[in-house]
Amino acid sequence: VPALALALVVTFLVWWGQGVEPASLPPAAMAPPTPIAQRDLPKPAATRPDRVGSTEAAKDQSGKATASVPSVEAAPKPPPVVTVGAGEDLGAVLAAAPSGATVILADAGPFDLRPESISRISAVARPRRDLVLKAAPDVRPILRPARGGDPALGEAALLRFGSGRVVLEGLEFQLVDDEREDPLAAIFADDTDLTLRRCLFRRPGMPDSSVRLAAVQVRAPARSNADEGRPAPVRIVDSHFDGGQVAVLARGPATVELRDCTIGPATPALWVEAAAWPAQLRLQHVSIIAGEGAVFRFSRAAALVRVDDSVIASARYGEATLVATDEPDRLDWHGWGNLYGGITTYLLLTRGQADAAPLRSFARWRDGTDEPREADSIAREGHLWAENDPIAALTALDP
């Protein structure tokens, strides 16, 4: 029995020393994580291109192709340039020229133009048109009235312009009146922004004429108040006017500027009429040979006149009048740095005040108003011009 008990003890110890291996557990299943619910995100909207080229058409919301849009707009055409030579119908070319056109006269011509009526009855409103009419380099084209045919009745002009901007450069106008009984002008500007550069206004032979001739005739629309804006200006630069014609005839409240010009004897040389609102007349560096009548005439017109650095003198020893007006109280005159020669009458009243004596003294003309009419100006007697025959010398000028 003791031996059996000992054997059981030894057997237990051996078994205990070997340890007990725990039962193996089955591995945990590696199932995938529960997926997160996917949200239906909106698809990005198709961006509409600013410009669609010719190779890709635009699509509407249904996905259907639509007509493609041009990528670039067509550039505007430049204003045309038209060249006219002798023998061509300049009048027809000018009538057909679109706004903005430049017409170049390739040679001296002459270019004959049929005078066009400018009477108020026949005047028709025209659309605005811009135009440049000029001479080719080293050419002096001659524009003159066409002979024959039925002449235009009433006042007429070789060139007539309405509203718009017009530039005339390097042209020679020849006014003859042997076939007319009515007034004729070389240029008629009806509320036109007009610029003349290096133009000649000739009177071939300068015969005495019973027809009133005007180089430039201006019509400015009447205004009912000062808020209606200024009329279109007329600028005449580096140009010459023969005697025997009115250099500028303005009707209404026109604005006219002359700079670096020469004017031959005429009665009058500069004429403003029918201006309820003041017309503006500005002269700078202008030489005028005074004729037997008035140099400036104002008829039923208010006028603002500025004359600077200019010479106004009679041709020889004859009498000359500076200003003739029927409304002296409506004349606003200021001159600066001028030279007057052989002027015997500075202010002549022409209507309503016939008993008023002419103003013959330069001192009274200069200081006869609240504000002096002249500053730093000089008046001399006798012959002032360097040439013995200033009219002939003036006619030979070619600016």
Report on this model:
The protein folds into two domains: 142 residues, no CATH class; 153 residues. The protein contains four helices and 28 strands. The strands form two sheets. It has an 18-stranded mixed sheet that branches. It has a ten-stranded parallel sheet with strand order 3-6-9-12-15-18-20-22-25-28. α2 links the parallel β1 and β2. The radius of gyration is 46 Å and the shape is globular. The N and C termini lie far apart (163 Å).
- Terminal Cα span: 163 Å
Strand portion, in percent? 35-45%
Helix content: under 10%
Q: Count the domains.
A: 2
Supply Rg. 46 Å
Number of helices: 4
Q: Main β-sheet: number of strands, strand sense, barrel status?
A: 18 strands, mixed
Secondary structure elements and pairings:
Layout: H1 2-17, E1 81-84, H2 90-96, E2 101-105, E3 111-113, E4 116-117, E5 131-135, E6 142-145, E7 156-161, E8 165-169, E9 172-174, E10 184-190, E11 193-197, E12 200-202, E13 213-219, E14 233-237, E15 240-241, E16 246-251, E17 255-259, E18 262-263, E19 270-284, E20 287-290, E21 294-308, E22 311-314, E23 321-325, E24 331-336, E25 339-341, E26 345-349, H3 362-367, E27 374-375, E28 378-380, H4 390-395
Please provide a brief summary of the model:
This protein has 399 residues and is mainly β.
Keywords:
399 residues; mainly beta; 2 domains; 18-stranded mixed sheet; ten-stranded parallel sheet; 4 helices
